[in-house]
């Protein structure tokens, strides 16, 4: 059962998204802040990370950068989630090393498709 | 008639008659010439000219008379009583002066001309008959009443003709001298006509009574020469004076005109000599800089009106021009800071024009105080900056606001979707229906917020293009599957035709998708039980490949009034439309902006009640942004519709 780490500060979004993903057969770890997320990722080495970008203190960009420069975690695919649908955000996501990008509110079907694709890709590597 | 009283037969010396006629013509010419002079003069000068002119012309007429008298010889000695002669001379001068007065007025009305000619004619007649009275001879003088009357009438008529001619020719300065001479000849000939008629009216009978010769003088041949010479000199002098003065006054009046223009100019106009010293300083210069002309003359312009710190550069510029001809400070308009006499500084526009005159350079400086202009410009700029800042703030606000709105909406849509999934598993169909309504409303709200966000991003200039190459047919498939449910809602059918040659295009696929989804969802929204068409084709126009997307419907159409505002923000046909069909009115505005961003064109045809067709052209190879900027300067035109 694939293990996903959801880093999201908004309680309702975190709760809703984690429950829906669980119902789709994923094991979900959650973190409320960037710092927590990074620690949890290093400890648990999840199969994929869903990274909210607008986080207090350490934001999603910074957390991604840390994880992608860390030998232990760099192989973990990261999907950036942001409510800001700006082109610059999209560019930024790839620049810091995110594997994919989606906007909030999430289109759940599309998100799960992206998760599946990335996991398949990771398996094949 | 006794033996002592016999008629005296006079005889004429025709050489003197000719001389008298010549003098009359000369006097007339001078009179014509003087008339213009008197007209041009004003005030005391005019009075002096009137008096001088009258004297010259009077002398001419009077000389004509006396030479005519002398041409007439009687077989008795004739002496002249000089006081009477003087009176006759004064009469001639008076008559001439009144004539000049009449013709030198700005306008000559008929009654002026008539009164003038009566005065002048009577004056000449008075001169003539008074002159006759001055004769002292041992004879009686008789007059034929008829001829005397005729001579007076002739004098008046001649005077009228002379006045009219003089009035007409008074302003002829040069040229037309032939006409003027002809006119003078006519007038000059006319005066002797009067004279000799008057002479014919007189007959002399010998009385033998010695006349009273207490004040009488005789006129010898020498006297005739004297009269002729003096008259010629006076007339000549008058003419030369008039001529010279006319030239002079023409110069003076052109200078006066220039001075007037100079002083009434709304710009400060200053002339400088080669050393940059002020030689002219007009009224506006005084008003602008506070220095009166008497203090400005001879000063260095730049020392007076340029603040110390900038002075050297201006002086150097002028020097450089004088030495090398480099036109750094001349022949162009520059904005500089000027110094007022009271010490305050203000902005001026300065233009210095060099003129090569009399072997050296002189300069004319035109200076305009642009304080008001500057202030207005600054206010305008500030207002513009303010408006732009406000607009940016608005866009940022909208972007933030829509972000803030989307976060809770995220939860609403997410939870209702999750509940729907859970509920459908437990089989509570009614709840599923309600949850779908919540989702639909939430998604609608989300699309509205997205529209506002998109538009504010475009407005704030934060919307870029993500160019990628994709298969057009693939995109159309995705769009068709997305729009199916919307098509079905109003029981419409969708007909899609994609030409075989459409192939690939390089564009921002997200925006192309949004353009087509907007147009299609509009078509669906405003059509009931109708047909929605989507046609895609590829064409070459202006050496460029274009993709043409056509979205047609058989819906309510667009009225003429609605057409004008169709692509404007928040413009829906009217409020009843938004109540019935929903939407923010941003869809077409965003569509239009996206099309423009990709260098494309959008047009529509519509008939109210019958349906609408929207056509979008997009270049198959969208240019990069830099390239687009070049194109947007209007290098190519829209393809024909």
Describe the protein.
The complex is a heterodimer of chains A (125) and B (641). With 125 residues, chain A is an alpha/beta fold. Chain A has a single domain (3-124), classed as 3-Layer(aba) Sandwich (Rossmann fold), CATH 3.40.50.2300. In chain A, 48% of the residues lie in helices and 19% in strands. Chain A has five helices and five strands, in the order βαβαβαβαβα. In chain A, helix 2 packs parallel to helix 3. The radius of gyration of chain A is 13 Å and the shape is globular. The two termini of chain A are 18 Å apart. Chain B is an alpha+beta fold. Chain B has four domains: 7-254, no CATH class; 266-369, 2-Layer Sandwich (Beta-Lactamase); 376-459, Helix Hairpins (Orthogonal Bundle), CATH 1.10.287; 468-631, Heat Shock Protein 90 (2-Layer Sandwich). Chain B has helices at 14-40, 43-71, 82-103, 110-133, 145-169, 177-201, 221-264, 283-289, 293-296, 301-305, 308-324, 371-426, 429-459, 472-489, 509-525, 560-563, 575-581, 587-597, 625-631; strands at residues 7-8, 11-12, 72-73, 79-81, 135-136, 139-143, 202-206, 216-218, 268-272, 278-281, 333-339, 345-357, 360-369, 468-471, 493-498, 504-507, 531-541, 544-552, 601-607, 611-619. A five-stranded antiparallel sheet of chain B has the order 10-9-13-12-11. Chain B has a five-stranded mixed sheet with strand order 15-17-18-20-19, with helices on one face. In chain B, a hairpin with a 5-residue loop joins strand 9 (268-272) and strand 10. Chain B is elongated and about 170 Å long. The chains are: A alpha/beta (125), B alpha+beta (641). At the A-B interface, helix 1 and helix 4 of A face helix 12 and helix 13 of B.
């Amino acid at each position: 059962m694939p293990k996903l780490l959801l880093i999201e500060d908004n309680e309702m979004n975190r709760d809703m998204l984690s429950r829906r993903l669980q119902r789709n057969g994923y094991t979900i770890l959650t973190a409320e802040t960037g710092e927590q997320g990074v620690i949890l990722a290093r400890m648990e080495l999840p199969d994929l990370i869903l990274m909210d970008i607008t986080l207090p203190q350490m934001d999603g960009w910074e957390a991604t950068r840390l994880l992608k420069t860390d030998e232990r975690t760099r192989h973990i695919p990261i999907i950036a989630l942001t409510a800001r649908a700006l082109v610059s955000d999209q560019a930024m996501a790839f620049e810091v090393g995110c594997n994919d990008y989606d906007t909030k509110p999430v289109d759940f079907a599309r998100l799960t498709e992206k998760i599946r694709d990335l996991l398949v890709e990771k398996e094949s590597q | 008639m006794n033996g002592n009283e016999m008629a005296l037969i006079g005889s004429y010396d025709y050489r003197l008659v000719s001389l008298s006629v010549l003098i009359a013509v000369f006097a007339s010419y001078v009179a014509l010439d003087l008339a213009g002079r008197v007209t041009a003069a004003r005030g005391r000068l005019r009075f002096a000219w009137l008096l001088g002119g009258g004297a010259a012309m009077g002398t001419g007429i009077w000389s004509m008379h006396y030479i005519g008298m002398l041409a007439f010889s009687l077989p008795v000695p004739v002496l002249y009583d000089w006081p009477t002669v003087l009176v006759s001379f004064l009469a001639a001068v008076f008559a001439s002066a009144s004539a000049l007065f009449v013709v030198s007025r700005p306008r000559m009305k008929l009654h002026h001309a008539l009164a003038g000619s009566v005065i002048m004619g009577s004056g000449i007649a008075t001169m003539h008959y008074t002159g006759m009275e001055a004769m002292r001879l041992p004879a009686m003088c008789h007059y034929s009443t008829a001829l005397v009357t005729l001579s007076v009438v002739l004098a008046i008529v001649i005077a009228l003709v002379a006045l009219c001619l003089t009035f007409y020719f008074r302003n002829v300065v040069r040229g037309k001298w032939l006409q003027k001479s002809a006119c003078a000849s006519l007038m000059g000939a006319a005066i002797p006509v009067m004279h000799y008629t008057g002479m014919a009216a007189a007959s002399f009978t010998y009385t033998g009574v010695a006349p009273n010769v207490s004040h009488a003088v005789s006129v010898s041949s020498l006297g005739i020469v004297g009269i002729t010479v003096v008259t010629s000199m006076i007339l000549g002098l008058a003419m030369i004076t008039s001529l010279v003065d006319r030239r002079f006054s023409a110069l003076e009046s052109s200078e006066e005109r220039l001075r007037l223009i100079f002083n009434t100019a709304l710009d400060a106009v200053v002339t400088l000599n080669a050393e940059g010293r002020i030689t002219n300083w007009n009224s506006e210069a005084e008003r602008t800089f506070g220095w009166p002309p008497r203090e400005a003359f001879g000063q260095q312009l730049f020392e007076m009106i340029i603040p110390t710190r900038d002075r050297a550069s201006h002086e150097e510029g002028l020097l450089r021009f004088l030495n090398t001809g480099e036109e750094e400070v001349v022949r162009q308009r520059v904005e500089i800071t000027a110094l007022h006499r009271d010490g305050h500084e203000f902005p001026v526009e300065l233009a210095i024009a060099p003129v090569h005159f009399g072997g050296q350079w002189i300069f004319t400086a035109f200076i305009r105080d642009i304080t008001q202009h500057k202030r207005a410009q600054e206010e305008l700029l500030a207002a513009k900056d303010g408006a732009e800042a406000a607009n940016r703030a608005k866009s940022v606000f909208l972007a933030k606001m829509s972000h803030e709105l989307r976060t809770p909406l995220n939860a609403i849509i997410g939870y209702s979707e999750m509940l729907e999934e859970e509920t459908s598993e437990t089989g509570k169909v009614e709840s599923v229906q309600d949850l779908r309504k919540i989702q639909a409303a939430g998604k609608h709200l989300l699309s509205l917020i997205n529209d506002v966000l998109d538009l504010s991003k475009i407005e704030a200039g934060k919307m870029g293009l993500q160019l990628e190459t994709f298969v057009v047919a693939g995109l159309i498939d995705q769009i068709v599957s997305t729009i199916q449910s919307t098509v079905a809602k109003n029981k419409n059918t969708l007909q899609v035709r994609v030409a075989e040659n459409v192939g690939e295009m390089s564009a921002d696929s997200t925006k192309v998708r949004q353009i087509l989804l907007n147009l299609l969802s509009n078509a669906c929204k405003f059509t009931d039980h109708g047909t929605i068409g989507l046609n895609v084709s590829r064409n070459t126009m202006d050496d460029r490949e274009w993709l043409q997307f056509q979205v047609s419907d058989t819906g309510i159409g667009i009225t003429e009034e609605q057409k004008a505002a169709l692509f404007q923000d928040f413009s829906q046909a009217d409020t009843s439309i938004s109540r019935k069909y929903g939407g923010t009115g941003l869809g077409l505005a965003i569509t239009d902006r996206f099309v423009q961003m990709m260098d494309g064109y959008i047009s529509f045809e519509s008939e109210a009640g019958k349906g609408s067709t929207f056509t979008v052209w997009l270049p198959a190879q969208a240019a990069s942004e830099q390239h687009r900027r070049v194109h947007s300067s209007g290098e190519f035109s829209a393809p024909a519709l």
